[in-house]
Amino acid sequence: MNTVAQDRFGRVINYLRISLTDKCNLRCVYCMPEDMVFRPKQELMQDDELLTLVRVFASLGFGKYRLTGGEPTVRQNVVEIVRGIAETPGVANLSMTTNGILLGELAQPLADAGLQRVNVSIDTLDPARFKRITRWGSLDKVWAGVEAAENAGLKPIKLNVVVVRGFNDGDVTELAKLSLDHDWQVRFIEMMPFGDVATFAKEQIITDAQIRARIADDFEPLELLDDGRLDGEARIYQFPGAKGTVGFISTVSAPFCASCNRARLTADGLLRLCLLRDKEVDLLTPLRQGAAEDDLRQIILDGIWWKPWGHGLEEDVIPLTRVMSQIGG
Ligand code: SAM
Ligand code: SF4
After folding, report:
1. pTM for the full model?
2. Which atom of ligand 2 is nearest to the CA of 134?
């Protein structure tokens, strides 16, 4: 059997983002409605099912893994799951995207279990605006989480910022300036339209060019690094003399499909081939029906072959079946 997952455009897919749960302890305005209804637990991958699928993906050359959600830290047994994934042969790189609320307690146990890095989402430095964006969040807890992550060695830390017109567009310069004195990467992510929150996202989006113009007006221009070559999905900039960097992820205005090497595993065990396209392949049902690992490998290889190219946002084709918290970002 071919043991490398490759699509029909020749892209080798070796990076898996796993949503550990669709649940979250926050309700960010661009991500989910306040009265979000979550999936019953039995519909989600159980710990042993998740680890079986990771073993299968690793055997197909997937070496890089990111745990996300919903909020990955609210998943029961998250530390043991991290340990199980980290110990799987072939897993070389293991990181997590989190809202940071529970990192104060969990950063050290997660690092001890084999987690290597974290990205922490933080959209503003103002406590009142933070509450308005996340609906339920406390900025103090997130900062305690970032500090705990640094102390636990979960570095280099990246801070994810989604910019929403009328909510935090006035905060971009202060956020970018965090990179002056810290060796962090502050990353601005363009808001993407999904399901129920699509209209909101389309109306309130701010593009990367607008963010950079605002930073230049308020403070000083950012300098482009590496001739604009992508670092993962981000284009990297820096203030002259800064310790850290500023990244821009322009999924909507400048998609990075040519270099895309990723697939996603949703919390209910579906292989999602593109963040912004609804095409998915069910892995959990065959697993529960007793499929052998070889059969699962073939299902994954066949699915990856049909990985789509390019989002359809300009033609108004938006992902409808799931919101971001169910896919994992
Ligand atoms: N709960 C974790 C967190 O917030 O970091 C992990 C899951 S969250 C879905 C992953 C990332 O997606 C976060 O950085 C979040 O800000 C971002 N995100 C959520 N909804 C988005 C949207 N509509 N457009 C762009 N990014 C979004
Ligand atoms: Fe939760 Fe993350 Fe979505 Fe915010 S962005 S509601 S923290 S899953």
Report:
1. 0.93
2. 4
Burial string for 132-141 (b: 16+ CB within 10 Å, else e) reads bbbeebebeb
Query: If you take atom 19 of ligand 1, which residue's CA is the nearest one?
Result: 31
Residue with tokens 């790189």, as numbered in its chain: 93
Look at residue 228 and tell me if it is in a domain: yes
Q: Classify residue 8: in a domain, yes or no.
A: no
How many independent structural domains does the chain possess? 1
pLDDT in tens, 116-139: 999 999 999 999 999 999 999 899
Say which amino acid occupies 326: Q
Largest CA-CA distance found in the chain, in angstroms, rounded: 60
Nearest-CA residue for atom 5 of ligand 1:
98
Residue 2 placed within a domain: no
pLDDT class of 145 with cuts at 50, 70, 90: very high
38 CB burial (10 A radius; 0-12, 13-18, 19+): middle
Supply the CATH number for residue 163's domain: 3.20.20.70
For the CA of 164, the nearest ligand: 1
C-alpha 55 chain-centroid distance: 21
| β partners of residue 96 | 67, 118
